[in-house]
Design a protein that fits this description.
The complex is a heterodimer of chains A (251) and B (262). With 251 residues, chain A is an alpha+beta fold. Chain A has two domains: 100 residues, Beta-grasp domain (Ubiquitin-like (UB roll)); 142 residues, Orthogonal Bundle (Fumarate Reductase Iron-sulfur Protein, Chain B, domain 2), CATH 1.10.1060.10. Helices cover 35% and strands 16% of the residues of chain A. Chain A has ten helices and seven strands. In chain A, helix 3 runs antiparallel to helix 6 and helix 6 crosses helix 9. With 262 residues, chain B is mainly α. Chain B has nine helices and two strands, in the order H-E-E-H-H-H-H-H-H-H-H. In chain B, a hairpin with a 2-residue loop joins strand 1 and strand 2. In chain B, helix 1 crosses helix 4 and helix 3 packs across helix 5. The longest helix of chain B has 23 residues. Chain B is globular and about 70 Å long. The chains are: A alpha+beta (251), B mainly alpha (262). At the A-B interface, strand 2, helix 5, helix 8 and helix 9 of A face helix 4 and helix 7 of B.
Chain lengths: 251, 262
């Protein structure tokens, strides 16, 4: 079963551009990325799109389809009506290089600002001993494919470019939570999550969770637990008193 | 994912799309329904504070519980006959009580999401541009006060226990009426919502990094996590149940509901 679908695709460079109309063939079982490739092959050979695995595992083909952040390779054409006009635009939060390809280096910069895993002194690789229950919370976050759709959809930086220096976005706040929950990590992550990475900007509206293609519960399992850990450290006098009386580590 | 090379030219311009959103679905429906639902709760709460028909043997309206003053007409619902406030307080009991469960819901992580979206439009829905020029989130006063949530949780636990006590008082009363079951259902939903709270999840064991060293706390955490996964549903169900139970008791107290098994 084939039909002709109407597409509007954002085309341009360095921000300047517009939505261009296309009518393109769609076959049964295809996804949006297939249609973008058909456009390249038949009507717009210079159309730029970043892609790699076509299996929802590399996180390269993040784009916005009918205004929603989606992976092009995981968005089935069968989810749209045949007479529907489908709009495809680049991720809005990041600068455009060309057409659907954005410059996501903001994310790499934020990744470098998160101190890496810090084991206790004297414990060498190979000597870590952990129970499965101690690490399975963090393992959920390791499913991340770094498509950066969570950072793209987060209104803190999507609607407020000026917040980018202060806010690392859900992807890297989740990374901080992952390390803070790790039984062998000794670095102080709570203070820096709040001060350096802008956890307080998060108003837990859960868009990051809604768009995650790996269905990671970013808000409930990473951001809110991290906010609660920050409350332990900075805002709860009873926890502070308990730590003093019982000489507990605040880590 | 492919990384841009360090010598790539600096590009700071986003795609210029001059509409608030390109979404084609009914994204406005959920915030609208949420706005109406939460507003109805607020309006009902104000009315319930003013209304004085809050007790009829053996039921006490949840918005007026516990019965703390001897000047209130709720002798049969006193906590073990205890009236700590005495007879000097003659204002509506809701004024004394509702700040605690109200504060619990106001600072609840789920309700924050719902009213940030539906009242403050920050954002109204995902990938829908918010109307505000500036955004600082919960980094400063007044929203930084949301971090007090766990203290409201402690009070909410006490309120949940009191509502359970009220339901038990009604259940042991003869003859048994429909209101007893309504108060019981409300107490169960309130406890399900309270115990599934994110702060409760953190306090049980979420703050630990070694679950294996605390098996009982880990077990509690897994149970709370199950409730927490449906926190939104518990929040709405308990909100409507507390309104429904409260209204039912008041209607019985006013004589509007007067069937034999009321």
């Amino acid at each position: 079963m084939s039909y002709k679908a109407k597409f509007k695709v954002w085309r341009g460079e360095g921000g300047e551009g517009k939505l261009e109309d296309f009518t393109v063939e769609v076959n049964e079982g295809e996804v949006v990325l297939d249609i973008i490739h058909r456009l390249q092959a038949t009507q717009a050979p210079d159309l730029a799109v970043r892609w790699n695995c076509k299996a929802g595992k590399c996180g390269s083909c993040s784009m916005e389809i009918n205004g929603k952040p989606r992976l092009g390779c995981m968005t089935r054409m069968s989810t749209f009506q045949e007479d529907e006009t489908i709009t495809v635009t680049p991720m809005r939060t990041f600068p455009v290089i060309k057409d659907l390809v954005t410059d996501v280096s903001f994310n790499y910069q934020k990744a470098r600002e998160v101190p890496s895993f810090t084991p206790p002194e004297g414990v060498r690789p190979g000597e870590y001993r952990m129970q499965q229950v101690d690490v399975e919370r963090s393992q959920e976050f390791r499913k991340c494919i770094e498509c950066f759709m969570c950072n793209n959809v987060c209104h803190v930086i999507r609607d407020h470019e000026e917040n980018k220096p202060a806010f690392s976005g859900p992807r890297f706040l989740m990374r901080i939570a992952e390390l803070d929950m790790h039984p062998y990590d000794v670095a102080d992550r709570k203070e820096s999550a709040q001060q350096d990475h802008g956890l307080g900007y998060c108003n837990i509206t859960k868009c990051c969770t809604e768009v995650c293609p790996e269905h990671i519960k970013i808000t409930d399992n990473a951001l809110i637990p991290m906010k609660e850990r920050v409350v332990d450290r900075k805002y709860d006098p009873l926890v502070w008193l308990g730590n003093k009386i019982f000489k507990r580590s605040s880590k | 994912m492919t990384q841009t090379t360090p010598d790539a030219p600096v590009r700071r311009q986003r795609a210029q799309v001059k509409v608030r959103t390109l979404r084609t679905d009914r994204w406005w429906l959920t915030p609208l329904v949420t706005f109406l639902g939460l507003s109805s709760f607020l309006v009902y709460g104000v009315w319930a504070i003013i209304d004085t028909s809050n007790f009829v043997e053996p039921y006490i309206a949840p918005f007026a519980s516990p019965c703390l003053s001897t000047s209130a007409v709720c002798d049969g619902a006193r906590l073990f006959g205890w009236a700590p406030i005495g007879d000097w307080y003659a204002l509506p009991p809701g004024l004394l009580i509702l700040g605690l469960p109200g504060g619990f819901r106001l600072t609840c992580y789920y309700y924050r999401k719902s009213y940030y979206r539906s009242f403050w439009l920050s954002p109204a829905a995902c990938s829908v541009q918010e109307p505000h020029g500036k955004y600082t989130g919960e980094t400063r006063f007044p929203l930084i006060v949301q971090n007090i949530h766990r203290y409201f949780f402690y009070f909410a636990l006490v309120i949940g226990a009191i509502l359970t006590y009220d339901a038990i008082l009604a259940l042991v009363h003869k003859p048994l009426g429909l209101g007893s079951y309504i108060l019981l259902a409300n107490a169960v939903l309130i406890l399900g919502y309270t115990l599934g709270c994110h702060s409760c999840r953190h306090i049980t064991a979420g703050r630990l990094n070694h679950f294996s060293r605390h098996p009982l706390r880990y077990r509690a955490w897994t149970l709370v996590s199950k409730l927490n996964a449906k926190h939104q549903q518990w929040a709405w169900a308990s909100m409507f149940s507390v309104m429904g139970a409260d209204l039912y008791v008041r209607l019985v107290a006013k004589g509007i509901i007067a069937f034999p098994f009321a």
